[in-house]
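note to self — DONT lose this again. spent like an hour looking for the file last time. sequence + predicted structure for the chain T wanted, 290 res
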Amino acid sequence: MFVADLHLHSRFSDGTYDPGNLLDLGKKLHLSIISITDHDTVEGYQYAESLFKAKNIFLIPGTEITAEYQNNEIHLLGYFIDCANQKLLKSLAEFQKYRCERIREIVKALNKLSIPLEAETVFLLANCKAPGRPHVARALVKRGFCNSYDEAFERFLRKNKPAWVPKFKTPIDQAIKLIHEAGGLAILAHPGLNKNDELIPIFKEMGLDGIECFHSKHSESMQKHYIQIAKQLGLLVTGGSDCHGFSRGKPVIGTTGLPTEYIAPIFEKVNLMVPDFLKLDKENFLPDTV
């Protein structure tokens, strides 16, 4: 039984759901805790902050930052960050500027391919401060230049395709430091997609706090593998669906997440008591099979 989904995206980055919808869905799916981890922004949490208490669901402030180590792209989730931290907000604003510039470069590449898409069309459709390739894909479909989101990526937007533009990535040690200085926990997202397990001990030495062992694209064997690594290195175990709403097919919120037994260590790491209403009793525990 999953009681938490700690990796969700909203309309404030490249998801399609309103943060309030995520809270409602979380409640409907009997989740006790969620985290809205939009790319390079905390606006999703700020928007939902006034709503979650009334819905009797715990909302962990979060974000997702794209980092880099030796030409490896690494995604970091930041949990329990102070969303009013000025250094964090200043850095996120810089990341957002790079995102907007990337959109302009992608549109220029499309224009060279005789596709008359305008950057302003993408920005209007995105209607957020952290636009990304999914918004370009949606714009291409809306304007009739592609028949589907997947076609837009396959023809133009994936790596090594004609309109692909590299994204800005901050050095991972700086990203971890940024999260820590905002009072948060730095978590390695979906390591099974990175395929560079040998780097995890290095990241641990840099201050990494945990690993996203449960993910919608992790098989059961991968989950067990990363739980074992987390235990060996003394890292937290986290999990989430990485739901983007309808932008990537069927929404996956609640299809995977974090079992009860891993909740308390996360709260303890930030010196917080687990909220009483979560009712983390032993009946909800999944057996430790690793």
